[in-house]
Amino acid sequence: MNQFAIFIEDFIKRSGLRLLSVAIFEKLSGFIISFLLIVYLEKEVLGELSYVQSVLAFFSAFLGLGTNSGLLLIGSHLKSNKNRQDLLNYSFSYGTLSTVLFTILFILIIYFLDLSDLLFFLFATLSIRMIVLYFTELQSAWFKTNLENKLLSNFDWIKNIGLLLFGLILIPNYQENGFIVSIIFIPLIVFIFFKQKLSLNWDFTWKIQNFTSKFYWKFSLVSGFSALIAQLIFITDSIMIFHMLGSESNAEYRVASIIPINLLFLPVVFMKTDYVTIAKNSINRSFLINYYKNYFYLFLIISFLILLISTFFGEEILSMFGKQYANSFSIFFILMIASCLSLLLRVPLGNIISALGKSNINLISALLTFLLDIILNYFFIQRYGLIGASYATAIALLFSGLINFTYFTHYLSRLTKS
After folding, report:
1. Would you say the C-alpha torsion 148, 150, 152, 155 has a positive or negative sign?
2. What pTM value is reported for the model?
3. CA dist., res. 92 & res. 344, Å (int)
4. Which is the most buried residue in 275, 323, 387, 392, by most CB within 10 A?
5. What are phi and psi of 336, to 5 degrees?
6. CA distance 236 to 393
7. Are the C-beta atoms of residues 72 and 144 closer than 8 Å to each other?
């Protein structure tokens, strides 16, 4: 059996197909929810909701001070169940406390800002969701740490089916209010249902052998800050469009970017399935080379098919959101190219670098890419409008991918020397 076939077989053995199927359902249901929002919300309300979600997505990347990342990396190397449970309780305690305090502070700050009633309402209600989001991400990290991918897929299935069903019922009848209720309470109910699998207790004392709390916090904070900056790369264009061109232009851009951005779930599924395995083989040069090479071949084929479909059916796909969005094909196609480049370089290599314990490299890459993204968006949006924003995002994502690739090859060369 050749290496590519073994790569696929190992992915299946680690319940990769189960996670892939639920991820596809999650994106399809998310697509349906986005479609309902576009249909039932006024364009101005949709633009403001998109703006609020973009801002909160930025802060959500740093939920729990990055403790879920520390749990996942260190937990991957712990053999003792007691050590992993102690690590979970430690992460839960500090992560929950920091998330709750941040949410309270955030609501207090926006209370004193000069916002419209709608913007204040959206910010206040959706910021509460960050607490729920932290809990669900904690559960996911714990299941991955223990290689319980079947349990993780069950957790995701129940959560996403609930979100879709309640979205279908509530959004047509209550518009943005129905959307807010569903995305807060459904994940919370599912978390409570699975909470018994975690045996959570409050514990602020570091008890883990072989790892220091200093290493844990350095990796967690740097990983969290890297994710926060990386998230900005995907929302900078939306925020700048909102302020420079208005909420209706922001809504148009969001429609054009829904599918390209959501395609990034594909490499995330592989990383979610194989993160622990990669971490355990962090100094195995042969494994790392073969893993990425086989991944690259697979996603090169997938990227070709994506671009082929986009070329011939892109306008028809956009017209499903409404005839007024059919003219956004150029924006859609540029972002689709950017997405495919991310499938091959930025997303997989960023996750592999994280599994190697080199979160500082991801932070450097994210900071440089973010600065480039701001500069390009500022000048391109002024000069070219919405299509300029898509060019800026595409260039920034390619730049990030090349940084990751450069470091990965450097890391492999150092393994050869050692």
Report:
1. negative
2. 0.80
3. 33
4. 392
5. -70, -40
6. 9
7. yes
